[in-house]
Amino acid sequence: MASSLSNWIKRNVVSRYMMSTCSEERKCLKVLEVILDEESTPEEEKMYFEHIQKCWPCFQNYNLETTIRELVKTKLEKKKVPEGLIEKIKSEIEKSSIE
Ligand SMILES: [Zn+2]
To answer: Mean of the pLDDT values across residues 82-90?
Structure first.
């Protein structure tokens, strides 16, 4: 289910409105790390968030990174992991490996 939905999105949304590959994915990942570490400048954030609206791989990286950080933070706080979070991570990983 999750992967067929992801394929549908890729065919109907991504191909029309987003880039399906990113020539600067590594650079974008570095910027994302800086943003998540809260060490970014407003300019970097603006550029990055504008970019991921048009860039499918970077959008997925963003979702995956924020989900993982959320999980790690929850674990560190020794709280119960929210229901569905593990599933969300699994499906994100599954989606990002589809090509
Ligand atoms: Zn990108």
So the answer is: 80
